[in-house]
Amino acid sequence: MSLLAMGFLLVILQPSSGQFPRTCANTQSLLRKECCPPWEGDGSPCGHLSNRGSCQNILLSQAPLGPQFPFSGVDDREDWPSVFYSRTCKCEGNFMGFNCGECKFGFSGLHCTERRLRTRRNIFRLTTREKDRFIAYLNLAKNTPSRDYVVATGTYIQMNNGSNPMFRNISVYDIFVWMHYYASRDTLLGGSNVWRDIDFAHEAPGFLPWHRAFLLLWEREIQKITGDENFTIPYWDWRDAEDCAVCTDEYLGGRHPTNPNLLSPASFFSSWQVICTRSEEYNSRQALCDTTGEGPILRNPGNNDKSRTPRLPSSAEVEFCLSLTHYESGSMDKMANYSFRNTLEGFADPRTAIANISQSGLHNALHIYMNGSMSQVQGSANDPIFVVHHAFVDSIFEQWLRKHRPMLEVYPAANAPIGHNRENYMVPFIPLFRNGEFFKSSRELGYDYEYLQEPALSSLQEFLIPYLEQARQIWAWLVGAALIGGIITAVLTGLILACRKKRKGTSTEIQPLLIESEDYNNVSYQSNF
Hints:
Layout: H1 3-13, E1 20-21, H2 27-32, E2 34-35, E3 53-57, E4 87-91, E5 95-96, E6 102-103, E7 107-108, E8 114-115, E9 118-120, H3 128-142, E10 149-152, E11 167-168, H4 172-184, E12 187-190, E13 193-195, H5 207-226, H6 279-285, H7 315-323, H8 340-345, H9 362-370, H10 385-404, E14 447-449, H11 459-473, H12 475-504, H13 514-528
Parallel strand pairs: 2-4, 9-14
Antiparallel strand pairs: 1-10, 3-4, 5-6, 7-8, 10-11, 12-13
GO cellular component, one term: melanosome membrane
Transmembrane segments: 474-498
Signal peptide: 1-18
């Protein structure tokens, strides 16, 4: 069976992850505010007959938000997804998905009980066959309609509060382009008014967890439409790069011979049409992106504003960023100083960690350097370089997690910009994910990076790791308890010895070895205990 035919068959048979489930994009579901589709395995909502999940009310975080968004009740993304749905599937155990029909990341098997760890590899270490397969998979995703998901082309008010659904079909690749746009778009306030200082995926603590979830969902979709369960996103290690090494026809598209802003006609990607790139037009019409093609991918790497981004990031800058001990700080937005997140995102100087929005470092530097579709936030995912770039950014996040081993409480629970508190649901994912769920090691989510791999653990080590981690988190209490216990033991021992001495006399000539042997052993045992 050809790869294309196989992909088409799998699209028909498999559920996917993205924005609005097709089965919930209708008047009945919107008016009832319920999205609890049946699982095909038993025909029951959320697979409840098979104990996979149940339809439940959504519990929203009540934690206070930061001051960056001074409105309430004007944006469909507030308290996601409550404007559209108040009841969704809550999956049990290792089950996941909008109908609990899938396994959580890192699990597989009929009952989602089998652990699985995949490795993301350097794109330049792929064999020619593996690299060509990756490019073929990208093209397949771009040209394969999503069976299970559609995207909204109007706001809830424009849908007449659900009685006039406005949704559109979209390809597997473009549904992720649309999600990136939707999470970062401006708020439409009516008339010609918009609010720009809002972003549910950038400029705040959720930047790294959001893109981690985004890549995992994107990776899974490729696995489904190709039938290649071992597929992982390759990464581009751009540290100390002198130019765009992936910008060749062999990889993700070379430069056009006569128009430096376009891709070479010899590249597969030169025929791709971008979507959701005209934010000012949407704002002027008070409308959402309708996913209509808007022209070819634009890219002119290196011909960017050098005063803003003079070069690609260096290894030294990445190492300095990794040395920062605070994940987040201060206002928890793009003005945060000494914040690992803000420095890696690129709004703080990668040599000092002081916020400087006139410069673009690390993650942002790559986007600006590409000087085209990648350089505009809302439409940046149109360029396939986006995924290999963000895979490497995610690997830096992973390095930081392994180096500093933060507890979940390090991720801000309150006062972050809208949508970025720990318990907030990420916009616009359905199934629902909280920011804090992806503030953990990639290995817990079923993947690793080739250059970060460590020796395989023995079964005993794997068994002990969860208990050692719990002990690490309460080590201060354990040390305190040990000190108090030692003091109490010493006092009791002293009292016991005093009583014995008083009862048996104090003559060292009669019992010269009493303390040196018998009682000394007792004291040692209790002290060790």
